[in-house]
């Protein structure tokens, strides 16, 4: 495994044909704040997060995942990582340099093994943020992103070798074998997970709420607004976090969560959980059963952005 140079997840960028409908969802019922907009691109922040934005939306003819962005501690670490990736024959989209997105910064982009665009940024200006109040049911921050891969272990090994991710836990079953790896770049149980899927695509984006009450209030608000609830409310065993999953207007799965486990990395040993046991998928037993229909929603549409860099 490579020495760890990534610090945290910064933002997830989506392209969609019905831009206005998507913007209304994320900037409305989902509870993010639009902080900048320019000719078919908008940037949405979480009020409790120091990140300039946690979601970027772009108007496009085809739905796709534009990129996933991670933080690095310094420009020197960005340069070191770029050199390491070049030496490892990773295909760079851009070389390290100054960026002109909100908050600026220094970074570069490259393709992962499945053809997703990944961005690494340092020196981004901290956004003025605030403490989320009791009963205020809006996202505090971006929690994690889960990606579908047609070759689960190849993708896991690539992220370990090139980006310093560590395995926290695995979901498996007697019939299907390994179906998900939870990966970390800090003591947070996972900032990314890799799911076995029929094609490369976005599985879900997760947003952390202030606490259990705010998580339930937010889930109820989205349900009352008429958006499709895919799965939840419940509590996973791997990561010990709560979950309610919804579909955004373009069929991407988005999650409200809270209380994601923090690990002692020096003593942690990964578990292999049998997800055919109901208490593994939901410790509480309150969520609708995990079945083929729920799983199919999370497969999403095949990503149209594989090995095609976003135009901005």
TrEMBL record:
GO terms for molecular function: DNA binding; metal ion binding; methylmalonyl-CoA epimerase activity. Signal peptide: none annotated. Residues 1-9 form the Orange domain. GO terms for biological process: L-methylmalonyl-CoA metabolic process; regulation of DNA-templated transcription. InterPro entries: Glyas_Bleomycin-R_OHBP_Dase (IPR029068), Glyas_Fos-R_dOase_dom (IPR004360), MMCE/EMCE_epimerase (IPR051785), Orange_dom (IPR003650), VOC_core (IPR037523). Keywords: Metal-binding. Pfam families: Glyoxalase. It comes from the Bacteria. Residues 8-123, 141-259 form the VOC domain. The keyword Phosphoprotein does not apply. The keyword Metal-binding applies. This is Oxidoreductase. It comes from Streptomyces nitrosporeus. The lineage of its organism: Bacteria, Bacillati, Actinomycetota, Actinomycetes, Kitasatosporales.
């Amino acid at each position: 495994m490579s020495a760890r140079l990534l610090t945290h997840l910064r933002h997830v960028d989506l392209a969609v044909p019905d831009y206005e409908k998507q913007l209304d969802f994320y900037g409305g019922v989902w509870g993010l704040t639009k902080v900048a907009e320019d000719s078919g691109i908008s940037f949405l922040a979480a009020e409790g997060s120091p990140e300039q934005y946690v979601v970027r939306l772009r108007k496009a003819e085809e739905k796709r995942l534009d990129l996933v962005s991670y933080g690095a501690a310094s420009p020197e670490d960005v340069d070191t990582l770029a050199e390491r990736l070049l030496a490892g024959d990773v295909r760079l989209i851009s070389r390290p340099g100054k960026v002109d997105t909100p908050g600026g910064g220094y970074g570069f982009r490259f393709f992962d093994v499945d053809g997703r665009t990944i961005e690494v940024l340092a020196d981004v200006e901290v956004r003025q943020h605030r403490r989320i109040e009791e009963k205020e049911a809006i996202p505090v921050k971006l929690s994690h992103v889960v990606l579908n891969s047609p070759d689960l272990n190849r993708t896991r090994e690539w992220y370990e070798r090139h980006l310093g991710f560590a395995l926290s836990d695995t979901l498996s079953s007697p019939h299907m074998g390994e179906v998900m790896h939870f990966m970390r770049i800090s003591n947070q149980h996972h900032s990314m997970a890799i799911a076995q899927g029929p094609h490369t695509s976005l599985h879900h984006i997760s947003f952390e709420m202030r606490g259990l009450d705010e998580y339930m209030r937010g889930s109820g608000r989205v349900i009352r607004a008429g958006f499709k609830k895919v799965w939840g409310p419940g509590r996973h065993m791997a990561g010990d976090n709560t979950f309610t999953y919804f579909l955004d207007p373009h069929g991407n799965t988005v999650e409200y969560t809270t209380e994601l486990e923090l690990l002692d990395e020096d003593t942690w040993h990964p578990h292999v959980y049998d997800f055919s046991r109901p208490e593994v998928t939901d410790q509480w037993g309150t969520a609708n059963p995990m079945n083929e229909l729920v799983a199919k929603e999370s497969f999403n549409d095949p990503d149209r952005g594989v090995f095609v860099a976003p135009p901005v």
